[in-house]
Amino acid sequence: MHILDIFETNPTTFSFEFFPPKTDKASADLFETMAHLQALQPSFVSVTYGAGGTTRERTHDLIVRIQQETNLTAISHLTCVCHSEAELEAILERYAASKIENILALGGDPPRNLQGYDRANDAFQYADQLVRFVRSRLGVADSRGFGVGVAGFPEGHPGTPNRLLEMDNLKRKVDAGADYICTQLFFQNADFYDFRERCDLAGIRVPILAGIMPVTSKENLARIAELALGARIPARLLRAVERCGDSAESVAKVGVHWATEQCRDLLDNEVRGLHFYTLNRSDATRQIYDYLGVKDSQALARRAAV
Ligand code: FAD
């Protein structure tokens, strides 16, 4: 389904993010996870896009498989890094042929270990250029073309410490034709609310989906700090995790509790969508729904509107 139709029919969206698995076993596990999460009736799911060639093929294969084997709407991430215009054109043509209707257009992080890689050789340096390019393509037999999302950073993107310039850059992506913004994970809702207000002041009127990642383990917390550069991990959360000592089970409970409270508060404050970074697991997301007292996203949306 086109993202504009999803927003039209869902006052609050609920979505799940996956990454392409590297082995057959991991792939089988992911489809089991997806079967569990399908029961929660997400508005859509999205699949990340890596820097290497084989990872990229895996994203494509996974997206097409989700489209063909489930009733989920699958959104593919796509990045500027390591791509010529002809390659991007070919990817979009393949997606259109497979009836993939939506793309999350990203700058992408430059690969760390790719020999001789020069960012200057990429067709596009910034996501707004990719948004414009995707919008200029035909998409799936629909005059609207592909639905396009972009990334937003409630706590700021480390590449642009000047927060006023950063907002100009975000506005440029929306003006280029983005239909929505999906945010980086954050642990303090105040950061999201402030970001939403700054977007409003900048004249950004598209839906903003809040990125939620429950902490599942101490290792996962360390990984979040490494991957989501600049993400603030509040002292209160750190203390709660430390209190768990060596109990992995307790850390997972603390993570789910924290994320549930975040979701509850976001729903109370009319968030347009919750986007769960699932790490290809279903347990934490399912528990959050459970603690919110609902069986699926439809019930959650109805309650959000109360
Ligand atoms: P851009 O919008 O291009 O911004 C990158 C930096 O450049 C920012 O600091 C911005 O302020 C600045 N900038 C933008 N335009 C200009 C301009 N015209 N002039 C000067 N500066 C400018 N990465 C992946 O590799 N694969 C994924 O699948 C992936 N999925 C993600 C999903 C979400 C929801 C989020 C939030 C991030 C994701 N990322 C992914 C990470 C993302 O690619 C990186 O954080 C990247 O550094 C920024 O991406 P962007 O799309 O915001 O890039």
From TrEMBL:
Its cofactor is FAD. This is Methylenetetrahydrofolate reductase. SUPFAM superfamilies: FAD-linked oxidoreductase. Coiled coil: none annotated. Its EC number is 1.5.1.54. It catalyses: (6S)-5-methyl-5,6,7,8-tetrahydrofolate + NAD(+) = (6R)-5,10-methylene-5,6,7,8-tetrahydrofolate + NADH + H(+). PANTHER family: METHYLENETETRAHYDROFOLATE REDUCTASE, METHYLENETETRAHYDROFOLATE REDUCTASE (NADPH). Belongs to the methylenetetrahydrofolate reductase family. Pathway: Amino-acid biosynthesis; L-methionine biosynthesis via de novo pathway; One-carbon metabolism; tetrahydrofolate interconversion. It comes from the Bacteria. NCBIfam families: fadh2 (TIGR00676). One of its GO terms (cellular component) is cytosol. Keywords: Amino-acid biosynthesis, FAD, Flavoprotein, Methionine biosynthesis, NAD, Oxidoreductase. It comes from Paludisphaera borealis. GO terms for biological process: methionine biosynthetic process; tetrahydrofolate interconversion. GO terms for molecular function: FAD binding; methylenetetrahydrofolate reductase (NADH) activity. The keyword Flavoprotein applies.
